[in-house]
Amino acid sequence: MVYSYELExxxxxxxxxxxxxxxxxxxxxxxxxxxxxxxxxxRTVFCVLRQALEAGDALDEVLLAQRVQSLNISFxxxxxxxxxxxxxxxxxxxxxxxxxAAQELKKITVRREIHDSSIEVAKNMKSLASxxxxxxIVSEADxxxxxxxxxxxxxxxxxxxxxxxxEDFIEExxxxxVDQFGLMGPHERVNELYGxxxxxxxxxxxxxxAGVGKTQFCMDFCTKVSSINNNVPILHFDNGEMSKEELIxxxxxALSGVPMHLLETGRWRQAGQEVIDKVRSTWKxxxxxxxxxxxxxGHSIESMLNIxxxxxxxxxxxxxxxxxxxxxxxxxxxxxxxxxxxxxVGRMVDKFxxxxxxxxxxxxxxxxxxxxxxxxxxxGITNNRSSDNVVDDESIVSLSDQITQFCSxxxxxxxxxxxxxxxxxxxxxxxxxxxxxYRWLGQDVHRALQPVEMPDxxxxxxxxxxxxxxxxxxxxxDLVDMIEHMDSEGVGILEDMRDEVPNx
Length: 504
Description:
Elements: H1 5-17, H2 22-25, H3 41-55, H4 61-69, H5 81-89, H6 95-127, H7 134-145, H8 166-175, H9 188-194, E1 203-208, H10 214-227, E2 234-238, H11 244-256, H12 260-265, H13 273-286, E3 291-295, H14 301-316, E4 322-329, H15 341-359, E5 361-362, E6 365-366, E7 368-375, H16 401-406, E8 409-415, H17 418-423, E9 431-438, H18 445-449, E10 452-453, E11 459-460, E12 464-469, E13 472-478, H19 479-489
Parallel strand pairs: 1-7, 1-8, 2-3, 2-4, 4-7
Antiparallel strand pairs: 5-6, 8-9, 9-12, 10-11, 12-13
């Protein structure tokens, strides 16, 4: 059934009898919910009634009939509108029945619109050019259907007292305790300081200059998180800068420890038995990995969203966890209505956020976590600069403030400067991972938030040390670990060590 005149009449009757119920349904019911294929009477009466209710006018059936009559509309079968409305007002309906009638009517609307969409899809399929690709065909259908699915609220959402469900929620968590919430990562200090960087419904952003290793970091992190969390599927979007083959070589190099040039040239078989064994041992490591690659160069935002939806429902399954990796956010996608670069990027980030936080949910809870990266502006350049000329704050984020606004964690990844490498003890890596924004913290909140006291009495914000080599990444502790190491070794610190990380 794609329409119900009876239900339409029932709802109008309820609004006439209980006008105070209108605010409960106003957010999801409008004139389009009144089908009126052959007559516009129900739609007209509702529109007049709604106008009066929104204006705060008190209307009985007589006044309502007069307002409808003043429109001078001819209804099918010469309906006497006064008698029609009087008949509606005499219907039996409870106050609670108004909301229930509105909810049922909205369900019928969704059915009707999906039914109409199927007709539109069938029509468009006939008119598609024979040269259309598979993705063109599927995206055309998705474009129509996705406007109708998961977009309706039917009155269950309303302001709620925050504390009504506190006892049940917290007690339930107590009945099912976990060490951490979200998918935990491979780096001990990151977990301790900031908890999971891949929490369902959240976006973690890594900002870095070109060539610093943001792709390397994100792919390594997602792969390792997946492997320690029962091989959670990863959907990886590449913006067109790296081919599938390039990423295969990088990942094999990271997992095997064999230099990329040997793998890329195919000369690993001539490099000795040890290298051959390292490469071939990788096949067992990746056997159960679920890392799915998709090149989205030239795709619109809506097309990317459709691909994520299709993959999640067909390959992952409703209610199951998934990692979405996007390398990386930039402005090469479509600009609508002359929108600027930052508006386009902001819209894209907002769309991704809405998808993983509100749409791909199970029992009201998000199931997909997102890790992405963005290129820093020129303030993030470290080459040929000393540490006191390096900017380590949010001002290095390019394109849009909405990137910072929508993410739960924002990290700066940068190479250490030459003076930093010289000043630091050996063994503390090649890169710094600096938290610029956090919405969540780990178990060691004090270590994450408290300034670290340096041997010279100065204080600076904590950060993580990473060693990046051959596309593999190892955590080398944080600033606290470095200071403790220097104390234990009796190593002093140079007086001119810079306070390169500002307080947030």
